[in-house]
Each structure stands twice: as structure tokens, then as C-alpha cells.
Amino acid sequence: MGARGMHSTLAEAGGRIHDVYVIYRRAGFARRVGRSPTYEAAILDNGMLAPLYLTIRLIKGNTIAMPADRLSRTFAALADPTRRAILARLALGEISVTELAAPFEMSAPAVTKHLKVLESAGLISRSRQAQWRPCHLEATPLQEAAGFIEQYRQFWEQSFDRLDIYLQQLQAQEKKNGRKKK
Amino acid sequence: MSIAENTELSFSRTFSAPRELVWQAWTDPQHIMQWRGPKGFSNSSCESDLRVGGAFLLNMCAPDGNVYPCKGIFREIVELERIVYDSSADESHPCGAGLPPRSVVTVTFAEHNGKTTLTLHTRFESEARRDAANAAGYSTSWGESLEKLKDFLTHP
User: What ipTM does this complex have?
Assistant: First the structure.
């Protein structure tokens, strides 16, 4: 998809793309790119969530089934700011534990502890091939978590839309009945 | 919409209706069935035992014919102000029915000038567990008590 196509698709999605972007920016997964303050900024870091993927999912409102425990593990793993920062760093490419530990002013064992949580949640994997065992980001659970949040949001947004209409109907009915009684 | 620490989600909406009516629409099974669920969904049955520890069950039918049960237990009820409920632990479908597994949902109703702002706040499991741990020694929720009892019975 070219930049123009991307732009129009994002525009079609209205504020929803922005909502998701805000979630990811706060979580340290998205960064501001380009000059536009809003829609183009939804482009996420390399390899994590392709804008194309995100756009398609948002527009089609895809439903996904995800085992409950895996989702809980993903959320638990994401609840820690250090782990979110680790994921943001890994989005830029594979890296060794020593390199990963450097900017965090943390010992390698402390970082390893966080990596184990991320690994058990399936958010990262560590190569057993090379001696330095580089860490890779695994995008699928994050995509599933994003899909889950979006699906849940749509559930309530659409329920609220329906409730709004229903409340208007109830009030109109009450008014009508009130008039009849008089 | 807002999200904090990745484990909490909040949605708000202001309705042009008095709080009593919004509360009724939210709590009366006959009303709930008229609006709950995404566009294109309908509800085949609804039971709601509105008291602390009471259960609710809503069977939602998707446009493709699949039925998604929404099951939960009321944890706190403050008439016209607040409802807290959580999902049953055995619920395996993550959110098809609008209630994620092992999550705590707080619905608040606030009235201003004849309009009602409804806020639906969802806290996911990991956060709920952490808070429960922090609160240990001060208060214990029913959910935690039951959880402990279950652990005790399964691992004596």
C-alpha cells in the first residue's frame, strides 16, 4: 500500500486508529513519525504491528479467538514498564542480553528475569543457535492483545450506540403514554 | 477511551436520559436484552439476580447464529450509582460476550442536568491480583476468599 492509500484508509477509520495509536504510544510501542500529529503517527515500530495489518483489522473489525490464559499472561507481562521498554528495544532488531541491559542500568540477571516473563508469555524468543543467544520479538501475542482490546472496545461502543437509541425510544414512549393518560 | 498500565480500560458515554432510566436499562433483564451487544447481535435470554453474590447470564446471538453466553457475578451494588461485577473463572471465551475472563468491571452512573454519564471500567486479571495482594491484611473480597477456599480444597 502506498502512502496515499495508507492515508485514505486511515482517514476512513476515523478516530479509531488514533485510539489504538494512543494505547501503543503510552505503552512505548508506537512512535511519532512524519509530520502529521495524528493518523500517520499510527505507524508502529518495525516488525511489531505493521500499519497495514492494523488498518485491515480495525476496518474489518476482525474477531479473534485467543486462549484466556495466554491473554492474561500477555497483559501481566505488559504491566511492567521495564518489560515494555525491553519490547520497544527489541522491535528495532535482535540483540544480546548484555546489550539489552546497558541502557536500563540493570544487572544482566535482573534483565534475564524480565526476559523470562516475556518469554513465558510468548512475547519474545531466544535463539539457541548462536552462543550469544540473541532475543527476538514475537509479534503474534501483541497483535492478539491489540485485536482483543479493539474487539472489546467495539463491543461496548456499539452497545452504547444501541442503548442511546433505546433510551430515546423509551422516553418517547413515556411521553406518549403520559399524554394518553391525561 | 483510555488505558492505564495496559491492564485497565475505560469507556464513557453520556446519554440524554435521567439516571433512573439508564440504571433501569442497565439492570432490568427485559431492558438489557434490547440493547446489549454489538451491531447485528440479538439476545435470546437474560437472567439477572441483582444483589451482591448474585449472578447474571445473558445469551447473545451473533449474526452468524453462534450463541455467546455472558456470565458474571455481582460484587457491589450501590443503587443508581455503581455496579461492580466480575466474570466467572470458567469462562473460556475471551470477550465475545463483552466480559473478559477473570476481569472486574465497574459501571458508574453520574447525572448532570438531566443527562447521565456512564463509565465502564475494566480491570484485567494481573492487576486485580496485584491489588488484592496489596490489600491483604486490610480487606479480602469475596472473590479472593472463594479462590482461597478452592485452593485449600484442591490442595489440602
Answer: 0.73
Nearest CA to A123 among A108, A144, A103?
A: A144
Distance from CA of A88 to the nearest CA of B (A): 15
Task: Kindly report the pTM of this predicted structure.
Answer: 0.59
Euclidean distance between CA atoms A150 and A145, whole angstroms: 9
Residue A124 in 3-state DSSP? strand
Helices (H), B15-119: 19-27, 29-35
Query: At B129, phi and psi to the nearest 5?
Result: -65, -40
Q: How far is A131 from chain B, CA to nearest CA, in Å?
A: 34
What residue spans in chain A does CATH classification 1.10.10.10 cover? Answer: 68-137
Which of A79, A163, A167 comes nearest B127 by C-beta?
Answer: A79
Task: Find chain A residues with C-beta within 8 A of B37's C-beta.
Answer: 155, 158-159, 162
> What's the distance, Cα to Cα, between the start and end of chain A in Å?
64
B140 vs B133: CA distance, rounded Å:
9
Q: How far is A96 from chain B (nearest CA, A)?
A: 26
Mean pLDDT by 10 residues, chain A (182 residues): 34 43 46 35 31 34 40 72 80 82 82 87 82 81 71 86 95 85 52
CB contact under 8 A, A27 and B92: no
Choosing among 3.90.180.10, 3.40.50.300, 2.60.120.40, 1.10.10.10, the CATH entry for A68-137 is 1.10.10.10
